[in-house]
Amino acid sequence: MLFTAFFKEAEVDPKEIAKKTGKTAKLYFSTVKEEEKPYNLWRHFDKELAKDMSLYITGQMYAREKIPHQTRQLVTVAALTVLSKPDELKLHTHAALNVGCTKEEIAEVIFQTSIYGGVPAANTALTVLKEVLEERGEE
Amino acid sequence: MLFTAFFKEAEVDPKEIAKKTGKTAKLYFSTVKEEEKPYNLWRHFDKELAKDMSLYITGQMYAREKIPHQTRQLVTVAALTVLSKPDELKLHTHAALNVGCTKEEIAEVIFQTSIYGGVPAANTALTVLKEVLEERGEE
Amino acid sequence: MLFTAFFKEAEVDPKEIAKKTGKTAKLYFSTVKEEEKPYNLWRHFDKELAKDMSLYITGQMYAREKIPHQTRQLVTVAALTVLSKPDELKLHTHAALNVGCTKEEIAEVIFQTSIYGGVPAANTALTVLKEVLEERGEE
Amino acid sequence: MLFTAFFKEAEVDPKEIAKKTGKTAKLYFSTVKEEEKPYNLWRHFDKELAKDMSLYITGQMYAREKIPHQTRQLVTVAALTVLSKPDELKLHTHAALNVGCTKEEIAEVIFQTSIYGGVPAANTALTVLKEVLEERGEE
Amino acid sequence: MLFTAFFKEAEVDPKEIAKKTGKTAKLYFSTVKEEEKPYNLWRHFDKELAKDMSLYITGQMYAREKIPHQTRQLVTVAALTVLSKPDELKLHTHAALNVGCTKEEIAEVIFQTSIYGGVPAANTALTVLKEVLEERGEE
Amino acid sequence: MLFTAFFKEAEVDPKEIAKKTGKTAKLYFSTVKEEEKPYNLWRHFDKELAKDMSLYITGQMYAREKIPHQTRQLVTVAALTVLSKPDELKLHTHAALNVGCTKEEIAEVIFQTSIYGGVPAANTALTVLKEVLEERGEE
């Protein structure tokens, strides 16, 4: 099938996506400090692309209803743990707690990944989890 | 706290762990071909260590009841996707399907990780998922 | 700035993006076999998401005119080399050649990355380059 | 061979492993600050699993007598260097020095890995080595 | 072809390489602080090897005239972004700006790599770019 | 210290390095098939750079006498295992065996790295070791 043929029928409604983006961003990241949001970093360099990226990531990916938000955040924690991305993991530890995951579940996911991505990556992630819990007063 | 002091009280019951290991291995990997099981590879080089590793990984980690087996397998799929480990992912795609995850859920987890670990890693994982589904006749 | 406020003004024209996506995809990937295109793999699992991903990646990212297509492909070759993603690298080696990069330039980029991502990753990439050149009869 | 059949004969003696764990931990990590030991981080989240992990990693893996402790620590330095895990590398730089590796040998191992894991990863590791040596007054 | 036979004809002129090394190092890294140069870290551990590494990396790799210095630095930025090496990226962000790349081009390269190496790695790189620009007063 | 000043005194003797390169290459890789040697791949794209890379890697790095060849190969096995580079690992498994490491030692190094780089990476490496041993008839 040709790309050109296929995309003629593109019927994405940007207003609908913008609405979903705002709603999902609020659900996930309301407890994250403004200066820690990647969106502001993107905007610093390119406002239009920042919008495109947010609409795509938050509005078209996170807002999908194929798996519950809790599962989505736990698999995100797993991915960011083995990738050793503590800054991004901080955001999604907040998101996981904000959508109702318990700290025990988040810790368990991190421990589980130690088999695949190694123990040092899990240690870094547990340290992030500990800090986020302290920051939220949920220890 | 001193290690020596702490571990004096170690009360791991090896028989109990061996039982859990067997039960969990059966639940997860009954559809995996014998020659694709890492356990046999480990045994080839060191029988005693192979036993220790299985007891630890399957009996002491996978058998924990802190999160449902479905969640455990989905986070494992996420970790193996971003780590780009197609052989191991094959085993856990089987395990995920064997504990009741749907193919749509597994695909969704892989798509979600493309934001964190990149699109090429997700493509490799989707290819593995497609092959496992074909192998099982579940397409 | 609030997400909700910001995105109210979202003015993405999906028809325009669909057009750019088709044009850029043709420019880059016309020499790539249909079954090697990730787009078809995505469609296999989720047609709507496949469309969203193509519109975003090809239409909103690759089609940007901030750097020449040649530079865009060479930096992509560098990224895929150090990430050791030979399948995806194959696609972008085609794209690099299709937009006018020479094989000497592509090889030089790969050699350069050996300092950062190590020599084995560069070796894998040179092997891919060699295969693509043979496939195209450009050796 | 069936798992269940195989593990019936499991004859791990937990007391013996606990003893080995304590002895090996002391040999390796006596110079590491208490708050930098992963063991305490694991305990913070799950005391029982922390014990299981220590018994497995330190008692069943590190304590094996297949290669000398010096070789074991040098290969660990190599692995942690290319994985870019400076916190864990700090622990094992201590361990390497504690079991008798010289600083010249540790530096040489790090330099050697620059061919495989790239120069930036080696630079991070050399910085860790420099800091540990300063901390120990062994510069 | 035998190694021994081939290398009999080795006609590398070390004086010529030393000259190229100095010239290229000055072109790239004149704005980098002395204590941030890996060369000094290498020298701390092994003076002779530090020389060999500099002659090879800077004199024999960077000084090659197969691609323009701007392209060389942009592909380096791409590689260091997906490898998540912020310290080394800092050096090459300086180098990229010093050989005439604009901040818009550097940002674009980083955004482009987010498709391959993931968004978190790109975020780390954009933060480095922001800091280097502030340090240079070029924001 | 200025680069230009420092390198004026560069006293590398290219003939001496060429000799060391040939000798070390023979010691390590005499059992490796010609078409599997990276050197030939490099030569395919750039004969002069191939020579520079060989002189640097084999003549200036591997030939250093700071650690025994056996240790050098075991740390290389560790690095290539956690980096998941099976092709390169094959070369250095040959090299390790050629300089006198036993298969038990190589397996032990791979098992040890599973703690740091994860079990799937170790599994890939054990598979390579098994294949090399079969190829050499040393099982």
Key phrases:
homohexamer, 139 residues, mainly alpha, AhpD-like, globular, CMD-like (chains A, B, C, D, E, F), AhpD-like (chains A, B, C, D, E, F), EC 4.1.1.44 (chains A, B, C, D, E, F)
Notes on the structure:
Chain A is mainly alpha-helical and 139 residues long. The first copy, chain A, folds into two domains: 13-66, no CATH class; 68-139, AhpD-like, CATH 1.20.1290. Chain A contains eight helices and no strands. The first copy, chain A, has helices at 3-8, 14-29, 38-45, 47-62, 69-82, 86-98, 103-117, 119-136. In chain A, helix 3 (38-45) packs antiparallel against helix 4. The first copy, chain A, starts with a helix and ends with a helix. Mean pLDDT of chain A is 91; it is low at 1-6. Chains in contact: A-B, A-C, A-D, A-E, A-F, B-C, B-D, B-E, B-F, C-D, C-E, C-F, D-E, D-F, E-F. Chain C binds chain F through residues 84, 103-104, 107-108, 111, 114, 118-121, 123-124, 126-127, 129-130, and chain F through 38, 41-42, 44-46, 49, 53, 57, 80, 83-85, 87-88.
Strand content of chain A: under 5%
Please give the alpha-carbon distance between the first and last residues of chain A.
54 Å
How many domain modules of chain A?
2
Estimated radius of gyration of chain A: 17 Å
Fraction in helix of chain A:
over 70%
Give the count of helical stretches of chain A: 8
Q: Using a beta-carbon cutoff below 8 angstroms, give the protein chain pair with the largest interface and the number of residues from each chain.
A: A-B, 29 and 29 residues
The biggest sheet of chain A amounts to: none
The count of strands of chain A amounts to 0
CATH architecture of the largest domain in chain A: Up-down Bundle
CATH topology of the largest domain in chain A, which one?
Answer: AhpD-like
Instruction: Supply the CATH class of the largest domain in chain A.
Output: Mainly Alpha
Q: In terms of structural class, how would the helical and strand content of chain A be classed?
A: mainly alpha
The oligomeric state is: homohexamer
Runs of chain A in which pLDDT lies below 50 for 5 or more consecutive residues are 1-6
CATH-defined superfamily of the largest domain in chain A: AhpD-like
Keywords (chains A, B, C, D, E, F): Lyase
Pfam family, one (chains A, B, C, D, E, F): CMD
GO molecular function (chains A, B, C, D, E, F): 4-carboxymuconolactone decarboxylase activity; peroxiredoxin activity
Domain Carboxymuconolactone decarboxylase-like (chains A, B, C, D, E, F): 49-131
